[in-house]
Amino acid sequence: TATYVPFKVKDISLADWGRKEIHLAEAEMPGLMSLREEYKNEQPLKGARIAGCLHMTIQTAVLIETLQALGAEVTWSSCNIFSTQDQAAAAMADAGTSVYAWKDMTEEEFDWCIEQTLFFGEDKQPLNMILDDGGDLTNMVLDRYPELAAGINGLSEETTTGVHRLYERVKNGTLPMPAINVNDSVTKSKFDNKYGCKESAVDAIRRATDTMLAGKRVTVCGYGDVGKGTAASFKGAGSIVTVTEIDPICALQAAMDGFEVKRLETVVANSDIVITTTGNKDIIQAHHFEAMKDKVIVCNIGHFDNEIDMAWLNKNHGHTKDTIKPQVDKYNVNGKDIILLAEGRLVNLGCATGHPSFVMSNSFTNQTLAQIELWKNSAAYGNDVFMLPKHLDEKVAFLHLAKIGVELTELRVDQAEYIGVTPKGPFKPEHYRY
Ligand code: NAI
User: Fold this and answer.
1) 311 in a domain, yes or no?
2) EC number(s) of the enzyme (predicted)?
3) ipTM entry
């Protein structure tokens, strides 16, 4: 019923700048560029109408143009209200992609943007593939447009939190199509979540606050993949890092990695920075805020803002909120200032530009392979969550070696026999944990 809007971005005149950054990113994304080369004749995504909902950054632009180079039609929204890079969105719109994304939108605009991606072109052809990050697009389709599900071949999901939602759907019997868990490819979660955050966590604090990190006491809540990268990020900057965990294995890992492991209650009063990485809810609560020291920096690098009790902060201390600059707010709680970044939303994409291209190339090469597999072989899968096979995981890694000058040792036939693998891989059994 509503009129067709071909795209909506903040400022289309940013397209040239965006295009120049995209060209630089392409040189850092060998996995995606080699898929373009490998599949340019075969066009495996021909006929696919992929609706994507994933941070509209420069790196994502290279993903979008890879999907298009493989034959797909693509529409796009961002999976976070603060994560769009407006020059990237402008470059996509300028090249004719239906992108609906701009930095700093309202929640209503966020929903509107996702909704626009469901129907393609003037004749409103419905999507037939989903590429999601966090599950908001999936939920929009399955909860509000369930009639579209039958026409969708499958979905691929980028992040831990979205994958968690998918497994819940399987348990409840509400997943009506096959899904590929991209997050748990080794070349995704053990690289993007970890080495990505190792670079982008401190980047976010620096761009937002310019505060000195060396010598500061930083508390990292959670020591999963994102927590490991985040803790390493601050350690590398010379901060004194404490970790909190609920899982004894991860707590022991943190301790063995040389971090103090304490409860948040024990260290919160002495922390200069507190950052949540858990993918869980209600990590920083009222009594923590009330115990914090003056000028503490509080932020979250997990997918959703409910890791921090923003509702309590806004309800009880919202009248003290003073915006220093976009995504940097000062609150006053009982006489002490609290610097809250990105309104509690993921800080590396809210206050900085997310992970570097090279690591995102690993994630997005997995995404592209997942889209090809589900588009071409959907019928071979049931309505469940699947992983890409290990040989593809190894292929993704392999495609990134030459760029950084890695010499891979070749396994001899007799050696392969001795350790029980084939010389061309897979090189590890399924249960191996890396
Ligand atoms: P994970 O499951 O590997 O790690 C989460 C850790 O938090 C676990 O070790 C868990 O035991 C711990 N935890 C849970 N509740 C806790 C509590 N109450 N206190 C202390 N620790 C607690 O998940 P992963 O992959 O590290 O992802 C975490 C979040 O980050 C997810 O929401 C994910 O979607 C998001 N993510 C964000 C990225 C970014 O660029 N900002 C990149 C990748 C993932």
Assistant:
1) yes
2) 3.13.2.1
3) 0.99
